[in-house]
Amino acid sequence: MTTAKPAPLFPAFLDLRETPVVVVGGGAVAERKVKSLLRCGARVTVVAPEVTDRLAALAHEGTLAHRVKRFDESDLHGVRMAVAATDDPMVNENVGRAASDLGVLVNVADDPALSTFLMGAAVERGPVQVAISTSGTSPALARRLRARIEGAVPDGFGTLAALAGRFRAEAIRRLPDPRARRRFWERVMEGPIAALALEGRETEARDALQHALNLEAGDGAGNPG
Fold it and tell me: CB-hemisphere CA count at 13 Å for 28?
């Protein structure tokens, strides 16, 4: 009898701005999870009898809410996402099962089987994010891959992404043909404009991109911006 191969995880990037998220646990693991969530703009509530000094400081300054108690299912009412990060496997299991019953996305530390999403290792360069997941099989391998990718993706890619974002709406307006717009951006990303951004010459890259867009849109004499 053969065992069915598990389905691959679906890679996704979630907008968590102002999203209510509960983190159950107050130790070092919970602190790392909380920091990642706060960086993404989530509204975090920590449920734990005790928390680290850093989490206590964040609660004191109002950056997060802290419920000084043990977890129960009512803590998940009205939230969109939950993270179980205690050192008690039974509590983590209770969080995972309660969240699943309520249709709340849940990540259970060190237990992919109880999780509906995983928090992978990530490399961040401004707007550019490269997420690495081993589907929960080996966090150590994910960290090793992250270290290799960090060395291969310089900070300039963040500058280039931010530059493209600045011109995205204007390019859509002035180049309404999707195929022409795609060709334009491919030339930008493979040519001297990208090279300027990667070298940190942001102002020159911006002016060159404006000029290239003017030419592509048939406005060679247009304002270079």
Answer: 0
Per-residue pLDDT reduced to its tens digit, 144-194: 999 999 999 999 999 999 999 999 999 999 999 999 999 999 999 999 999
CA-based Rg of the chain, rounded to a whole angstrom? 22
Residues 96 and 30 in one domain: yes
105: left (phi over 0), alpha (psi -120 to 50) or beta: beta
Which of these ranges, 35-44, 142-151, 215-224, has the smallest mean pLDDT? Answer: 215-224
**Strand locations in 61-190, DSSP E?**
65-67, 81-84, 105-108, 121-125, 128-132
Question: How many domains does the chain fold into?
Answer: 3
Exposed, middle or buried by CB within 10 Å (0-12, 13-18, 19+), for 83?
buried
Rounded Cα distance, 26 and 94, in Å: 16
